[in-house]
Amino acid sequence: MSLNNDVVDYGPGIRASLPARISRRLAQAEMALGAALVAVIALSLLAGSVSRTLGRPLIWTDELAVHLMVWVAFLGGSLGIATRGHMAIALLPERLGLRGRAWLLLLTDLLVMAFVLVMAWLVWRWFDLPGLLRAGSGAGLASDTFNFIYTDPTLTLGVPKVWFWLIVPVTCVTGGIHALAAIAADLAELGRQQ
């Protein structure tokens, strides 16, 4: 998939705004990271399969693959915002004129931004950075609030799960940038139609 053509189209002769250029570069980086992670997942599963065949199973390979699949899913969600590639029912836009479609697209992108902002608020509460600073450590936070985000280890890898959960706040930031770029494009389109 080439992101040069799939990221929101701003029309012929229209210079992309700063948010649009940042969104496009970010989407390219997300695509590259996603491709690399898919390769690591495939290699991890292959290594696990071969090691089981040889009678010396690597028990951590499946868990690594599962955690990396979650990363790929979140990257894909962010890319879906960048490309406006999420599922949609196109009955209403087909019935509207150009101006109506532009307003509907703006409303849709504002709702996507609202979702990203709510998600960011929930992630902020979940990661509880002020609580972590007050407690002084992940163990202190767990003791004070029963929030084990910084201390809960993976089963076979033995690393804190927070390293894998970091994709959630990253997606809030990247999805927000993509949504902002889409809103800027919608407003520019509405301005051209007047």
TrEMBL record:
Pfam families: DctQ (PF04290). GO terms for molecular function: transmembrane transporter activity. The keyword Transport applies. It is a multi-pass membrane protein. Residues 42-187 form the Tripartite ATP-independent periplasmic transporters DctQ component domain. The chain crosses the membrane at residues 31-52, 64-82, 103-124, 162-185. Keywords: Cell inner membrane, Cell membrane, Membrane, Transmembrane, Transmembrane helix, Transport. It is found in: Cell inner membrane. InterPro entries: DctQ, TRAP_DctQ. The keyword Ribonucleoprotein does not apply. It comes from the Bacteria. One of its GO terms (biological process) is C4-dicarboxylate transport. GO terms for cellular component: plasma membrane. The complex comprises the extracytoplasmic solute receptor protein and the two transmembrane proteins. Belongs to the TRAP transporter small permease family. Part of the tripartite ATP-independent periplasmic (TRAP) transport system. This is TRAP transporter small permease protein. It comes from Haematobacter genomosp. 1. The lineage of its organism: Bacteria, Pseudomonadati, Pseudomonadota, Alphaproteobacteria, Rhodobacterales.
